[in-house]
Queue: 2 jobs
Job 1
Amino acid sequence: MCGIVGHVGPGADGVVVRRMCDALRHRGPDDEGYLVDEGVALGMRRLAIIDVASGRQPVFDESGNAAVVFNGEIYNFAELRRRLEADGHSLRTRSDTECIVHLYEQHGTRCVEHLRGMFAFAVWDSAARRLVLARDRVGKKPLYYHETDQGLWFASELKALLRAPGFPRDLDPVALHHYLTFQYVPSPLTIYKGVRKLPPASVLVYQDGRAVVSPYWRLDYRRGGPPTEEEAAERLRELILEATRLRLVSERPVGAFLSGGLDSSVVVAAMAELAPGPVKTFTIGFDERRFDERRFARLTAERFATEHHELVVTPAAADVLPTVVWHHDEPFADASALPAYYVAGITAQHVTVALNGDGGDESFAGYGRYLAHVVADRLPVPRMAGALVRRSLDAAPALQRRRPVRGARRMADVLAAPRPQRYAALLAYFTREQKAELYSPGMRDCVDGVDSYELLADEFRRSEAPDLVGRTLDVDVRTYLPGDLLVKMDIATMAHSLEARSPLLDHQLMEFAAGLPSRWKLAGRQTKAVLKRAARGWVPDAVIDRPKMGFGVPLGRWLRTDLRDLSHDALTDATARGRGYFEPAVVGRLLRDHGTGIDRSAQIWALLMFELWHRMFLDDRAAGPPTPPRLPELHVRDA
């Protein structure tokens, strides 16, 4: 696990690349390595997990023509080593990194097809004067790039690119527009004009001053699977065990995040079956019972006699906000980034590698919104009726203090949207109408004609899944999963030099799941039906049968109590009012509504995260890239 940076083009400078690497020290505290030659400079910071003693980078092929810097883990590296040696390659280390450069030597850019793992890497081919960048299939490892007339710059995090000379710290209003809808800036955009994310499952080739991005993988929801659900559940359990076994290979201590949900419980069950000793598990809880999963995590911990650690997050989590904002580099409004940061910090005090349950919802239809989407699609309600319900609810703001009414308001938004855009309407944190009201005239002009809902509608149109559930899963795997969940996990863990591994995101397991009938995933009102069948008798029934909770925080209460002053001060002072993006009166109304009991927490949080990011990264450009805030003491208490 590492951070990588580089520049290919005239004037490539090893001093600049070293400065870029310094910004990524948290990703790789154990080592650093560089390649500097005419027209190229590559760098990396290393968190040593595999081949700790001799796995230094860059790694070269036998000829010395190709070199690689790499972030991630290749879980099938032992098998790849045997194949490469049988093909006549000479490997000098025991690392997974070296497999990549020899696979490139043999297969060129198609080397990615042989890799089973999480990765972002750069290969410099000196003979062809070619740079190859690649990212794993679902986007577990990040990679950003920026083209100029001085060549191409790339880095694992935007904060490293900020140290490149002439980096344009100009906000992209279209990226902000999409962020307010989805809580994150969707790929390939970043919050900065002219800077891009390499999409998941993509290869970028930069040669002769030109970058070409090509996709190499997509899930196939039409393949079919075993003839019965019972056989599918049995095979699924085998695949989970295999994916977990591969992710237990490490020369450093390994543990697991245990949320109390089905997905992480299944991973812990597999670890307990495979690991030679007790599994170390880590759980975060809250004082507010509606958000606290510790009681379910304990059931799994007790079943498998894990070495279990529990901690409670308090509203003093606001103290870490500057640190979380700094690590994310661009606005990010998923409030569960706070408990993710905490659980990663506590876990890193005990282990260097942590397995998690990411990916189960997107493969097996675990979110309640999948059922809501299917129901909305089947309701014989004209769009006009949905709009009428929405206007009626808007006319009675007092009713919006009640959660069932807010749910009805969201469903009215969905029903009022055209069919291809309904899923985006279901996910939106700011609707199109709310954004139009929020924006200043200048901001409205900047995004005129840009429809955030169309981003997901386009993905629906491109999907070849045979039914609505399959298409919805396909869309989430390509948008929400890499744009939100995997960003949150990567940033939280890397902030503490902790490696996260996700058995349920093994691409072979995901391919198997994609081919199963949707009725085995969403069975009537039951979500994740086939995964629950596979888990039955393996994890406690109470965990399998519990309602879906999600990794949320009591944000609504916090913004009325401990975080009230911070949100009001940051969003209404002269600095915020003078930005020119939003109408101050509308922002003020959101704050007042929330104070009276109408839940505006998601919208206020999105605006607050944007404002804090803007102050840190854009307001004082003369000072250069911001330095990390002082790391606060973790405000947790023993459960």
Job 2
Amino acid sequence: MPAQTKAAIRKAVQLVIRGSPRVLIHTTSGRLLDKSKRVSLFESLPVFKELISSMTTHIDDDHIQREVEHYYRYATFSHTWEDNEPLFEEVVHIVVYDLEESFTHDKLQMFCKIARDAGLHWAWSDTCCINKADHYVLQEALVAMFKWYEGSAVTIVFLRGVRSPSRRGDLMRSIWNTRGWTLQEYHASKVVRFYTEDWKPYLDLDIPNHKESPEIIAEMEKATTVSAQALKDLRPGLGGIREKLRLASRRETTHIEDAAYSLLGIFSVSLPIVYGEGDHALGRLLAQLLTSSGDTSILAWTGRSGTFNSCLPASISVFDELPTSHIAEMEAVSFRKRMSSPNFTLVMRLYDRLFGLPVPSFANQRMRLPCLTFKLGPVEATRTASGYLFRARTGALGIVEIKTTEDLSRLDSLTLVHPWIDFLLLRKPVERTTDVISENTIHQPLSTPGSPTPPTRPNTAPTSRPTRLSSLISRFGLPLMAGDSGSLLLLPSVTLTDRRDQCLQFIARLKQPFGALLFTRIRQNVEEYRRVAPESLITVQVEELSSTVLNKLIEGACTLDVL
């Protein structure tokens, strides 16, 4: 039985430490130990022998699991980096507690002591527990860091610049609340304790988890301008992309690339780590987010284009404001009164054309952007203090005003773009599900009995029977879509009553003001474009939906190649 018990313990140890950091500080000895040494250390402890001796006839896996998990609990450190932080190569062969006296060494030692006094045998600091000279180790750490903080027993926060007696508001104003990496560290951690520079609990809070303190909650709400519930509801992944980018936009990082790398865990994505690539890192992150989610709100910004692709910004700071491109829906009764009778056949043809466009995607820094295009006529320029104010006419949008530092009169061609296709089609973000219309609800289903459940991603172009789909759209109204299995799907918030109203709602969205993007051809007679980034949002509106305009919109529904 002892051999079987040993095997059960070792299996539990491997499961527990699998998701933990590669290297941890042993808070008792002050040494850095990798996973193999942490395994060996456990087997030298009395608890290991007690587990074996207590299970001579029966192996209690639950008891083993509890003991192993308790022993391997670890603390994580959240702080702002200073000059001369103790690095891996400096600490790996010595005891942390023997480091010579300095501000940064004292900071690391106190972190380890507080973790030790809390009964934790292990601690992790991003300064000395990552061998940054090993590119593989660095890549692993930056991708897995969110999960490491999430799996810690407690995150100890060192508030640089805050001394005791601390007062309400000190946390909100602390430099800690301005750094890029600390956003992830706070968001991921389940238990957090804040300490002042002289290592006193912030506000003398005497509760196990400061994250649950009303005072802390109030200060974090003010610091982020996001409600406590909204912060709590944010989950790793592709949900709430724009809100997460906005939270990160107010943070600063020492390295340009870390503006992107510090968000990998928040978005649950992985990127190759290439320090020295500059704003390419942000471009690669945004391109992956847009391709994976189809969330074109990423394109709603003004400022300067980055080097990765002209559709993506050079700095994350442009996301400080929420997008103004998606205007709140008007009530059906209000738009019904103001609209003349449209050509519904053309309206449905336009809807069908938009629905058939592919999802936005990136490949080799080239973006495929589904959109509605509007050709601009000749521009008239007026000099301003910061650049130019241009005016131009387009058939469907009337007079357009554009503020930019680039001289548009020198460009070969100009095109305004409406890229908010999901908004026009009432499609929801990728992570939300759609409702399937049952065979009893629609008497001419595209699916056959027993066909698999269609995918939940709504922004996927029809892959089967497009002609049948067009006829069903004409018969049953808007907006419907086809799943990959051929099933007919009803998008959220849509009923099968009064399809004329659904059509009118689509028209109303077409007529609402939107933030347009501006593009120019890179070379004459070559259908490759680049975005011209304006200084302020280009707000335009379709003035009318005559048959002539609808035909132009149908012709202008296309996919652009953007570099």
